[in-house]
Amino acid sequence: MAEQHKVVIVGGGFGGLTAAQTLKGADVDVTLIDRRNFHLFQPLLYQVATGGLSPANIAAPLRSVLRKQRNCRVVLDEVTGFDISGRAVICRDERIPFDSLIIAAGATNNYFGKAEWEKHAPGLKTVEEATEIRRRILSAFEEAERHPDGPNRERYTTFVVVGGGATGVEMAGAISELAHHTLRKDFRNLDTAKSRILLVEGSNRILEAFPEKLSRKGEKALQRMGVEVWTSSKARDIQADHVMIERDGKQLRVETATVVWGAGVRASPLGKMIADATGATVDRGGRVVVQPDLTIPGHPNIYIVGDMAAAVSDGRPVPGVATGAIEEGKFAAKAIVKRLAGKPDVGAFRYWDKGSMATIGRNAAVAQVGWLKLTGFIAWLAWLFVHITYLISFSNRVMVLFQWFWNYVTRNRSARLITGTDADPRRV
Amino acid sequence: MAEQHKVVIVGGGFGGLTAAQTLKGADVDVTLIDRRNFHLFQPLLYQVATGGLSPANIAAPLRSVLRKQRNCRVVLDEVTGFDISGRAVICRDERIPFDSLIIAAGATNNYFGKAEWEKHAPGLKTVEEATEIRRRILSAFEEAERHPDGPNRERYTTFVVVGGGATGVEMAGAISELAHHTLRKDFRNLDTAKSRILLVEGSNRILEAFPEKLSRKGEKALQRMGVEVWTSSKARDIQADHVMIERDGKQLRVETATVVWGAGVRASPLGKMIADATGATVDRGGRVVVQPDLTIPGHPNIYIVGDMAAAVSDGRPVPGVATGAIEEGKFAAKAIVKRLAGKPDVGAFRYWDKGSMATIGRNAAVAQVGWLKLTGFIAWLAWLFVHITYLISFSNRVMVLFQWFWNYVTRNRSARLITGTDADPRRV
Fold it and tell me: What is the pLDDT of residues A189-218, one digit of tens each?
């Protein structure tokens, strides 16, 4: 009996996990490699960062998800290189041979060359970043409580979110909920509703991925919630106690102790690594330029999917969203099976745009599904439905649904713990 | 109008929080000081350490719990000293004057002079320790998966729990559940059911606080679950890769990568600090020796409650358990109100022993309530009922109940995330 075809998948995010699940029952030997032991539902990380959900609510252990898929092995390891001619992925602890390779290592925050901003303005890509942001936001209110009215208190009750995409909008809306409702009666000396929440966006409108009408509606909804929306504004410097923002040609100094980064992502460094090893090119965001079938030019057995791929569908770039990664993961897995069955012509990947949505706060969201544009409560319900549907495990779904229902009714966010290894958890 | 009587409470655990809540509506000005922003339900920390619950399930933000109690202010700060003659608690950021003082800062792990053991054998007192133990246990299985059968794999699948009290017993039982059920089908190369779980107890029986009959039943139940129970055995050394255990006069070396400490607690260092400031004495465990009314001799306005107090009821020491702290907190708060009302004779604190209980695993527990001794499923149901009842917030109760129900039905533990700031989360 010939040895089974070995499929190695790097990354257990939306793209990699979908690829592994699509190969269920196929006559291949699958190895899924990830640095973490869980799949993370990144679109809901902002809920962890604002105390609405616990990390475990939006994470599912990879071994648990793939437990019943007997042709799939999970390896907890870090990829350090690729041996293309030897057909192996080199990890820290082992060398894993492949016949076909799917790389789906996702993206990290992009500070556009300002790496020093990271410590002052964490992004929302990992559980640790989310709990760190949660610690900073809650600690800022604690600091504000101990200062009298004045510049110090103002600094601690000013929150700056950089980037007006879905992540930034959701984050700004959730901070507003915290300040205006959840925490309102928690403090004796401080009126948290006087907080200033600033959303800074470089282009001339927020939610650029949406039709202009929805951008406007989203902006209005944020403003009603007390969020200041600064479009055509760019962060020029970020320090521990202030940010410099360029707006209308002026440099404005905003005193703040809490900055959240949502202004951009770039592909995992594995993108550059595989490109160097195969002679492929990467774009400005570090994404690997792939063929229409998602493979690397000259390497029909190496697929790049998800946020790491600069993929094109019908002449347009595939957006870096969960549904894009899911579709690409499924396509790559099916392409491998087809080629093994002697059908090398798998055609080109075509992205079926299921639409975009962003929640803004309680009862408010914007959604676009094909020609359909939704706003307000209906959009919010649609957002809820879609996110619950995509959550990986049933247990998570029910827990999140219940927690949301509870938070909705009580306006509470019970997961607002200040945790960390720091001896004094209050220090920012 | 005279200024209100100032009651300062140090610590938001069972004792301090109960004291604050008991003063609701009283004509006093209450300040509750804690280093953390949440009350933690410590008896369930072992569930966090073994992936059954999320930290937020067993924590309640102090401000949220006390939100409606208008005479109570919460201060997030660390106590650094006491000015007894000046009647003030000195914190890192402010000086808080008091007329009456209740100190309830709890206990920390006691390594009996072997501070160097702490890094190899974390205890179960904080959220951070619990998630660290969770990381170590899950990472050990991951390491075992990558090693072939042999000494290395054995080391990673050997778990040593030091201390056979309720904490140690619950921890050993929960690790056994993980190894024998939850993780059983998660690994391809490793049979987690072959794990070795060792419970080491210095005295001649586990669960010493219980009647001997229940100790025996508990030991039998653990053994049925595959836990080796070593009584009359003492840890003599703990290193990263092994422990030395003295048993029957012999020194035995046990290779293990994962040790959990449940062998003892000592009072918070604030005990020694207040004793030095007031001329009180502390016992071997660092607990402050108090009068029958829980005050410090010569200081009728300073109360010590909970794990920090060496309190006596009817000639017997009050055990360091949640119910003891709760009763003491209530007593101290009521004593303050009585004395303010001109009734200085508050009598002696009397502990009403509500019984003790420890869960051993699915369907198994031991419980003693007065003359009533329960074991097995009934004891387990009683344990469940009592723990749900004592959980502070309603939201927590429902979430925990649901999560437990789900874990019970599926034998799943969905909160088994390996998290931490370490770049490589697998490294122990």
Answer: 999 999 999 999 999 999 998 999 999 999
SS3 for A222? Answer: helix
Domains recognised in chain A with CATH numbers: 5-35+77-109+266-340 (3.50.50.60), 115-263+356-410 (3.50.50.100)
Chain A residues with CB under 8 Å of B142 CB are 37, 76
Residue A219 appears among annotated catalytic residues: no
Q: Mind listing the pLDDT tens digit for each residue in B59-68?
A: 999 998 999 9
Query: Choosing among A31, A75, A76, which should be mutated to test the B contact, i.e. which has the most B CBs within 10 A?
Result: A76
Q: Strand, helix or coil at B281?
A: coil
State the Cα angle at B19 between B14 and B20, rounded to 5°.
105
* Strand stretches in B106-255, DSSP E: 107-109, 158-162, 196-200, 227-230, 233-238, 242-247, 250-255
Q: Which chain A residues are closer than 8 Å to B35 by Cβ?
A: 424-425
- Name every chain B residue with its beta carbon within 8 A of the beta carbon of A37: 138, 142, 416-418, 425
Contact criterion met (CB below 8 Å) for A340 and A7: no
Which residues of chain B fall below pLDDT 70?
A: 1-2, 393-395, 412, 421-428
pLDDT of residue A372: 87
Which residues have C-beta within 8 Å of that of residue A116, sequence separation ≥ 6? none
Measured between beta carbons, the chain A residues lying within 8 angstroms of B186 are: 61, 63-64, 67, 74
Q: What angle do CA A365, A369, A374 make, to 5 degrees?
A: 35
Instruction: Out of B170, B177, B327, B328, pick the active-site residue.
Output: B170
E strands, A137-222, are 158-162, 196-200
Instruction: Give the 3-state secondary structure of residue B380.
Output: helix
Cα radius of gyration rounded to whole Å, chain B: 22
| Residue A179, phi-psi category: left (phi > 0), alpha (psi -120 to 50), beta (remainder) | alpha
- Chain A interface disruption, residue of B30, B41, B63, B412, most A CBs within 10 A: B63
Q: Distance from A153 to chain B by nearest Cα, in Å?
A: 15
- Cβ contacts below 8 Å, chain A against chain B, sum to 141
Give how far A407 is from chain B: nearest CA, Å. Answer: 9
